[in-house]
C-alpha cells in the first residue's frame, strides 16, 4: 500500500508483483521516480512502449501517463511528489529545502530529450548511488515504527540532484542540428548555472569553453540559430512559466531569483516574448 511520510510525497514499494495500481495518482502527480529493482516487461508511456529490466530507472513529469506491463514478477519503488508539495500552504513542509528541490526538478521539466523517460547515466557510480539512495528511502518507508525523517529528506535531496545532473539538456525547438559536443556542453552549463548570472557572462563562457570571447556568441548562433543572449533569456522565461504553473512564488520572488530588476521588468519582458502578461498567464491556468 502507498504511504505518505512527508506531506504530499507518496512512496510505493511493491515486491514481485505482476499487477500495479499506483498509476492512479497521475492527475495530481507533479514528478515521479520509478526504480525497478527486479523483473522484466514493458512500460507504456504516453502511448509508446519501452522495455524495462532489473535496475531500470524512469522519471515522469506532469501529464505523463504510464502503465507497467510485467512479464515476470517485478519489484518496484516509486516516489511521487504531488502537485501540492511545492505550494506554500503546508506548514509541515516549511522546514524542507523545497525551493532547492524544485530547482532540480524544473531542469528536468524543461528538458525535451528524454521522451520515453528512462534515465541514462554518465557514469555507473551515479546509477549505483541513486539506486542505493532509493533503496534507503524504501527501507525507511518499510520500517513503519521508527523511520528516520532526516534520512528520507536528505536522501531525496541527493536523489533529485543526481537525476538533474544526468539529464541531457537539448531544446529540440531551437537546436537545428547538434554536431558539436561543445554546443551540448555549453547548453548544459547554461541550464545548470541559470541562477548564477556571473557564470553566464560572455567572458566567463568563453574562458570555460576555450573559445575567443569575441567569437563565442557567433559560434553559438551558428550551431543553434539563436543568439547566446536570447537563448539564455528564453530559457529563463521557460522557468518563469514553470514557477507560475507549479508554485505559489510571487512575481517579485521569481524576478529576483532569475536576475530581473523587479516584477515590473519581468512582466514587461514576459509580455514582449510571450504576448501575455504574468497575471493573464496565471488566470489561464485556473
Task: Output the keywords.
single chain; about 290 residues; alpha+beta; Jelly Rolls; Arc Repressor Mutant, subunit A; 5-stranded antiparallel β-sheet; 3-stranded antiparallel β-sheet; 10 helices; 8 strands
Write up this protein.
The protein folds into two domains: 3-166, Regulatory protein AraC (Jelly Rolls); 181-285, Arc Repressor Mutant, subunit A. With 286 residues, it is an alpha+beta fold. The strands form two sheets. Strands 1-2-8-3-6 form a five-stranded antiparallel β-sheet, with helices on one face. A three-stranded antiparallel β-sheet has the order 5-4-7, with no helix packed on it. The protein is globular, with a radius of gyration of 20 Å. The two termini are 32 Å apart. The longest helix has 19 residues, at 124-142. The relative contact order is 0.10. The protein has helices at residues 98-109, 124-142, 149-166, 181-192, 202-209, 216-224, 228-246, 251-257, 263-274, 278-285; strands spanning 3-4, 9-17, 29-38, 41-45, 48-52, 56-60, 66-70, 74-82. α1 (98-109) runs parallel beside α3 and α8 packs across α9.
Q: What is the top-level CATH class of the largest domain?
A: Mainly Beta
Tell me the CATH architecture of the largest domain. Sandwich
Distance between the termini: 32 Å
Overall 3D shape: globular
